[in-house]
Amino acid sequence: MNFANLANNYEEAVAMLLFVIGFSNLLLQKNLIRKIIGLNIMDTAVYLFLALKGYIAGRKAPIVVDGVQSVKAYVNPIPSGLVLTGIVVSVSVSALMLALTIRLYRRYHTLDLDEITTRLKKEGL
Amino acid sequence: MNEAILAVVILLPILGGVLVPLLPFKNRTQMMVYTEGLVLLNSALALAMLFHRPEGSFVLFRFTSDLTLSFHVDGMGTVFAAIVSLLWPLCVLYAFEYMEHEKHEKIFFMFYVITFGVTLGIALAEDVVTMYCFYEMLTLVTLPLIMHTLTREAVLASRTYLYYSLGGAAFAFIGVIFILIYGKTPNFTPGGVLDLAAVGDRVNILLLIYVLCFMGFSVKAAMWPFSSWLPQAGVAPTPVTALLHAVAVVKAGAFAVMRVTYFSFGPDFVRGTWAQHVVMALAIFTIVYGCSRAVKETHIKRRLAWSTVSNLSYILFGAAIMTPLGLVGALSHMVAHAVMKICSFLCAGAVICKTGREYVHQLDGFGRKMPKVFAAFTVAGLALMGVPGLCGFVSKWQLVRAAVESRDPLAYIGVAALMISALLTAIYMLTIVVRAFFPRKDFDYDTIRDVKDPGWKMLLPFAIFVIAIVAIGLHSRPLIQGLESIAAQLP
Amino acid sequence: MDAWILLPVILPVLAGVILLLSLAFEKRKNGREQPDREPDEARLRSLHRYVIAVLAVSGVLALAVSFSGEHSVTLFELLKGIPVYFHVDDISRLFAAAISVVWLAVAFYSFVYMKHEGKEQRFYGFYLIVYGVLMALSFSGNLVTMYLFYEVTTLTSMPLVLHNGSREAIMAALKYLFYSMCGAYLGLFGIFFLYKYCDTLTFTAGGTLNLELAQGNVTILLIAVFGMLVGFGAKAGMLPLHAWLPAAHPVAPSPASAVLSGVIAKAGVLAIIRVVFYVVGPDFLRGTWVQTAWMTLTLLTVFMGSMMAFREPVFKKRLAYSTVSQVSYILFGLSVLSPVGMTGALLHVVFHMVIKCALFLTAGIFIFQCGETRVEQFRGIGKQMPKTFWCYTFASLALIGIPPASGFISKWYLAQGALEAGVGVFGIVGPAVLLVSALLTAGYLLPITTSGFFPGGIVKHGKAEEHGTGAAVDRNEQKDDGKAANLEPPLAMLLPLAVLAALAILLGLFPNPLIGFAGKIAASVM
Amino acid sequence: MEFVQNFPFFSILLSLFSGPLCSVIGGKAARRVNLAVITVVGAMSAAVLSFTICSGEAYVYLMGHFPAPWGNEIRVGVLEALMALFFCVVMFLSMVGGSLERALEIEAEKENLYYVMVNLLLSSLLALIYTNDLFTAYVFVEINTISACGLIMIRQNGRTIEAATRYMIMSLLGSGLLLLGICFLYDLTGHLLMSNIKEQVQILHGTGDYHIPLLVTVSLMSVGIAIKSALYPFHAWLPDAYGYSTLSSAAILSSLVSKGYIFLLVKIFYRVIGFDIVRDSKIVNILFAFGVVGMIMGSVSAIKEGNIRRMIAYSSVAQIGYIYMGFGIGTTAGVIASLYHILSHAATKSLLFVAASGITDASGDSTSFFDLTGAGYRNKLAGVAFTVGSLSMVGFPMFSGFISKLLFAQAAVDSAYYKMLPALIALALSTILNAVYFMKTVIRIYTPVDREEVQRRGFRKVTFVDQKAKSAALVCFIVLNMALGLCSEPVVRLLREGLSLFA
């Protein structure tokens, strides 16, 4: 393995690290709120990654203020657009998750999903 | 002759059977006349068709361009179809008397008649897919017949039957797929259809698949280790056990094995390989195993069922010899076993139905009270043992001849197994006979005062079967010649 | 076509079937009436007449068939190339004649004896059928036909064994059945192989084995033949399938035991003769391990049978073991595969048939008259039934082989055959075993005579009816009764016994025609 | 350009906007709107299908005026149109079949919200089917997830909420991986349109550059979608979600939602990466292994289950295992078998759910196994339908399951040794296991109980007239199933054509 590239691409590495942190939180945490936080970290990591990819050092956003320059002067706007879309998606998903969590908490007064499952079994539903 | 009749004989009982519970019969007799008439008509049609075999084939339906439901009569199909067509009317007749006291008669006869059509479908199938389809269907339409009494036992038995059968079919299915892919054609062709060029270096895989397929189909033929469903299924009413579990269903399994062995994979492909030895060893083991279980069993129908297990493996053994003579042996035992086992089952059924006694030790002195039934039973028992002059000897002779000619040491062991099995057969059949005819010195006949011979509807089948047993035994020439001509088609 | 030679087969079988059917029919007519009721005297007498008439006619027919030249008849094809085929040759003659004579004699005897067993009609029905089947067996002209009638013999003779219906009898009958079946199937196993490797299964003196075909398959053929020897040996009481004999004989009615051990056991011998000398051919077996094993088995059986008989207190069982031993004499004679040995064997077939029947008939008389079955009960019995006892003594002497009684002749030939057959160590061991066995035979038969005539005190035996069947006599109480009762059986019982005993001696005195006949047979096959 | 070519876009748009529309109208009206939308979409899909069959090639539809590589595109071929049509049919029947349950189980004032979710689900499914843009696919995957979650939790009880939560969590894990995979691909190729990505990937593959990142990308996306479509062992949410949600939700979820994802995976394999590259990257072997294990384990869990709805749900796990096994075989024949199984399973599983509800209706609404005894006599049609569904699951000839089994087996035979035998044995074993639990149920519902027992428990008889909608749906399902089983050849041909257009 060539770790030299790791230093060059440290941003990507950070994004991946964040992704893993988020992913494992979402997967392993028992507490629902923490899971949701994990989810957000994970999504953010992806957006960070996308944003990094979309930015080329020294170029501007393609917002035309003072006349069109050469294409080389701007970065591709699509990645940024994707990030924005992604954020919308992740916000709505988080909202839904939180709503579900509230429902569960009202019903079972706990945020631990496993415990809820055992309660459900006791309920015999 | 028009090929469409092939489909007619299969569909007529299926449709006619469905009508049984729907038609507004005023009384039992009307239903009887309808059912018997239907079955007789269909048998007559089928036999007429078998005598003037239509040359071509009839395609009923196409799944895909190469998967069809198509029918064709050839020699082997003729044998099976003839057995079935001859036995069905008799058993329906018997069933009328037997079922008098059972509930849900109409449903029973519906499925009983449908099974006729499905069994003919297996016999007349032109290709391996058609046979597989009807094979599966057979499982399904016979299921309600086993469940018929709806006792806990019956439900359990039907479940076991279903699992075993479907499971077997699942493995057989693998074989069917291989035949479809590696065969030149899915149609049954004497000597097999495998395209050896396409097989290439996959011979061992194909042999493994053959073994799986053999074992899959032989589940219905109750080969060890898949034999335990058959004795359990004995809870069904006797017309079912007699006809289905001694002839139609189990023979369908054996028939399918013969089809894939001789007409799809091809005997030349398998002969002399480890696959042949595996299947033959299994068959040989079952021959002895079934008999030993029969000796241990005291419930009379279950005892006969174990005996069927053993006898079916005679057929499988014949099939596993994989020479034309082996086919002759297997087919002749198929015929012979059909008559003798159905006869003994019907006797057992008559006893159970008329007296409610089900265990061997309850049959003391019955020979004097039900002389006709037990005379028939004795003849059937002797035939099963292989006494010369009765049909069992003829088929056993053919089987052993094939085994000896094959010069395979394992086949020699098979011959020994046949002999052991014959001895065990003597034990489990003759103990019943001796008990019935020669009760203990102090036996009090008043305890079985109510026992007497059943009515003509039961006795007529007995008479016919006994005559058949003796006739085949004494004059086997035409039968064997016919079977040899079938085997002669093999390359 | 000489279809008439089947008359002695068909006639008794038909007659027997009619008896059985009329029994069933009558039962039906009488409804629930006690099925085991005693038939009245008149009925019984007509029954006896019927039986004797049938037997006599068929016996005469059988003799006529036997001694009117070569006959053969093909009935129909059982299987392709395997007809049901009858052929009368010398072996058939020997067996048919001997069986007919003995059968008739035992029938006379049973008329009286069977009174105390009951169910006569059933007994005679099967008795006649078995006779017919045995005739068919003797006349069988090929292996499959013989096998067919061999099986039928087993099946039809089984009811004779279980006649009295006790639990032991039924168990013994089943044992007999299954041993015989086991043997028959071993035989069938061999037949399958012989069918493949022989030119024909029709009996041909000297064998029909096709040695070219057999080339390379000798091992399996030898195994098959050995299986047949052991299998058919079952009926002849050869080791290892001998155990049915001692079980079946004590429980069967004495006439049945007599024919079982005198005649039916010989069916096994007949089958072995047919297989070895008429299908396989003695040359194929000579010097192989099969011959060695066969000889070993027979000698073991001879010795073991005698030993067991020696130790056995129940008289009929003792006789049964004796049969085990004696029939193996015959088999030993055959196994050496020499003409002299075979002559001896054939002679012993006839002699043993006569002698053993006689012995069993005496055993029956003891049971019938005194209800005694155990050897130690016979003390002093000779004084009350001297005629019976003399017959017993003569028969015993014949069996032991004391010159000039018949047994001597056959044993002489047997020993000589063994010595000159060139079978190595068996040439010495064989005669030695025969000698030891003869001594043992003397040891188990003669003490009965001595203690019967010389009880060493006053012992009186009562009639069976007075103290119940099988009960021991309380001798002390009867001591003062004065003169002991005459227990001599009725003439109908005594006469057949006397005839047989006389035959046992006379055949020994004038053996030459028989020896000539047997020698002719032996010469023809080797 | 012909007018009919606009239909895919119209159908997505129609269903998307009918969603918000439903939120402002009443429950009954919403229901009508919903059915109408499904019908119209179905009709349009049929028209598109016939158009594509006639034209014999796929076409690309520009969204807006930007051509590739900048604009967003829809791509329509035979396969897409067929799937869209089929999904509409199944959804329509499921909605009709479950109408009675919805009336009972959903609070009246929330009923219109349910249709919002259904319409959104439909639109997201259509978008997944038609889109040619990976990021659009991602967005609609999320919409799909959210609306499915709504479908689960619309019936309010603890189980459904818990199931919805679990479903969300698993789905989010999956879509996170998927998203990451898409980002990687974008990073590697600089494109989001599938066809453009494929060109670049082929070049990359040719040069051998970025071999490992490509492999990672493929695995990320495969695993992500596998998680979302409940491949064993990621199935924990599934039994609760299918078992306790309202009937039409269960039917739609089991037969459509997971299938939408799987279809997306097929598109990724064929249209984005290229199937030969996928095959060479050993990822198919992993899918194969999980598929085979899933086939067995799903059935084993189903056997142990005492609740009929959950049992059917577990059976879905096994069936999804079949589909992944088909991919895993790594041949086009295997993929066709899987695609056929998508159809066959959709038709069968929703049939089973509806039939099971018919059976439970006749057993005092108990889903417990023991209460079902004799239900086949109390509700004859449902009994027959359940039997048909079971037989199809067992792979009985004449029913759709048989054909897919046949296709799987044929595909397996032609594959490598080390896959052929496990695949065939697993097929056989799974058939047996299916037989065990399905036929056990069939036998149970046809085991009569005495009349007093029925009266005491208050079980009612259900006739055709009582539940017209459900009965009609059942009949249609049976016909659909048997049609797939008996006339499979045109369908398979379409699948084959469509797949060849993919490449």
What Rg of chain D is obtained from the alpha carbons, in whole angstroms? 22 Å
Query: Quick check: average pLDDT of chain D?
Result: 87
Shape of chain D: globular
Distance from N terminus to C terminus of chain D (CA atoms, Å) equals 23 Å
| Number of distinct beta strands of chain D | 2
- What are the low-pLDDT stretches of chain B, counting only 5+ consecutive residues below 50? none
Query: How do the strands of the widest beta sheet of chain D line up side by side?
Result: 1-2
Oligomer: heterotetramer
Strand content of chain D: under 5%
* End-to-end gap of chain B: 28 Å
Low-confidence segments of chain D: none
Query: Rough shape of chain B?
Result: globular
CA radius of gyration of chain B is: 21 Å
User: Pairing-aware structural class of the strands and helices of chain B?
Assistant: mainly alpha
Note the total helix count of chain D. Answer: 22
Greatest chain-chain contact = B-C, 46 and 40 residues
- Strands of chain B, total number: 2
- The share of residues in helices of chain D is over 70%
Order of helices and strands of chain B: HHEEHHHHHHHHHHHHHHHHHH
Number of helices of chain B: 20
Detailed description of the structure:
The complex is a heterotetramer of chains A (125), B (491), C (526) and D (503). Chain A is mostly helical and 125 residues long. Chain A has one domain: Helix Hairpins. Chain A has 5 helices and no strands. In chain A, helix 2 (10-28) packs antiparallel against helix 3 (32-54) and helix 3 (32-54) runs antiparallel to helix 4. Chain A starts with a helix and ends with a helix. Chain B is mainly alpha-helical and 491 residues long. Chain B is 74% helix and 2% strand. A two-stranded antiparallel ribbon of chain B has the order 1-2. By secondary structure, chain D is an all-alpha fold. Chain D is 79% helix and 2% strand. Chain D has 22 helices and 2 strands. In chain D, helix 3 (78-97) packs across helix 22 and helix 15 runs antiparallel to helix 18 (400-413). The chains are: A mainly alpha (125), B mainly alpha (491), C mainly alpha (526), D mainly alpha (503). The B-D interface holds B 61-65, 67, 132-133, 136-137, 140, 143-144, 147, 150, 155, 158-159, 162-163, 166-167, 169-171, 173-174, 177-178, 180-182, 205, 208-209, 212, 216 and D 391, 394-398, 403, 405-406, 409-410, 412-414, 417, 420-421, 424, 427-429, 431-432, 435-436, 439-440, 443, 446-448, 486, 488-489, 492.
